[in-house]
Amino acid sequence: MHPPVEAPARSTRVRRFSRGEKWVHRAAAALMGVCVATAACLYIPALAEVVGRRELVVRIHEWAGLLLPVPVLAGLVSRSFRKDLGHLNRWGPHDRIWLRAVLRRDHRRASRPAAKFNAGQKTYAAWIAGATLVMLGTGLLMWFTRLTPLMWRTSATFVHDWLALTIGVVLAGHIGMALGDPEARRGLRTGEVSREWVEREHPLWRP
């Protein structure tokens, strides 16, 4: 009589992001950080006085903004990155339940079902992608001053400045959420998260 075959133990770690996805996030975050930092140096007088060299700061800001879409475009060669874009663009009934729970300030885990990405992450990804494109377009109008009428440049400056302020606030909230979830940060750093975290925060995800 043969001894019973034991089932393989479930791994305690789950692969959440590939190496390519991690580098896309890091590169995009670094460029966005440069954009925010240089914008602060350009618009806050106290910082402008400390840093000086306004022309150099302007050039760094312009090129960082111009390069911002590059990591995402480069990431499209990665199958796992394209798959995650599909997850971010796919909304289901559970996402509406998640958003209603947030609006009601219902913090129970059972009231916030999520697949690989929750509705808040999907909303942020869509918003920051659209905001980046608007910032790129208005920035180009401001950069190439001889190609557009004065009214266009004035409107572009208005939109660019106020949207930049909004992006700063949203990014601060995004960073604050990340600081409150060490396991999510570990997933971005190492590509892996604990199975217990997945079952608690993303119960509908089947890795």
Descriptors:
10 helices, two-stranded antiparallel sheet, 207 residues, single chain
Describe the structure.
The protein is mainly alpha-helical. 70% of the residues lie in helices and 3% in strands. It is built from ten helices and two strands. A two-stranded antiparallel sheet has the order 1-2. It is elongated.
Number of strands: 2
The proportion of residues in beta strands is under 5%
Q: Mean pLDDT score, rounded?
A: 90
* Element order: H for helix, E for strand: EHHHHHHHHHEH
Broad shape:
elongated
Contiguous uncertain segments of 5+ residues: none
Biggest sheet architecture? 2 strands, antiparallel
What is the strand arrangement across the widest sheet?
A: 1-2
**Oligomer, anyone?**
single chain
Radius of gyration: 21 Å
Residue share in helix:
over 70%
Q: Which structural class do the helices and strands define?
A: mainly alpha
Number of helices: 10
Q: In angstroms, what separates the terminal alpha carbons? A: 37 Å
